[in-house]
TrEMBL record:
Protein name: DNA-binding helix-turn-helix protein
Keywords of this entry: DNA-binding
Span of domain HTH cro/C1-type: 7-61
GO MF annotation terms: DNA binding; DNA-binding transcription factor activity
Pfam families, per the entry: HTH_3
Any one cellular-component term (Gene Ontology): cytosol
């Protein structure tokens, strides 16, 4: 599981700096950086705050953080299509998705 990379990917897709996301998620920039580099474990409450700030359901973030070997019997093609569709959705600004 690479939840740090998933957070970073979503943050970049949203156009947020680490400073902006840390502010919205009510955590320090240094802690967010450590999470993104998988150098600190993330608490559920912090994960919820980050997901809320990114306007991303926790399930999507967990999917994006799942490594290839964790998908088991899922075909590589389906895995790629799901990831591609998810990233397309994340490319839209968060306020546009609420309309």
């Amino acid at each position: 599981m690479d939840i740090g990379n998933a957070i970073k990917t979503c943050r970049i897709r949203r156009g947020y700096s680490q400073t902006k996301l840390a502010e919205l998620a009510e955590c320090s920039v240094s802690y967010l950086s450590l999470i993104e580099h998988n150098q600190r474990d993330i608490t559920l409450s912090t994960l919820q705050k980050i997901c809320h700030a990114l306007h991303v359901p926790i399930g999507i973030l967990l999917f994006l953080g799942t490594s290839h070997d964790e998908f088991g019997e899922m075909s590589k093609e389906l895995e790629a299509e799901l990831a591609k569709s998810t990233l397309v959705l994340l490319s839209a600004p968060a306020n546009e998705q609420n309309n």
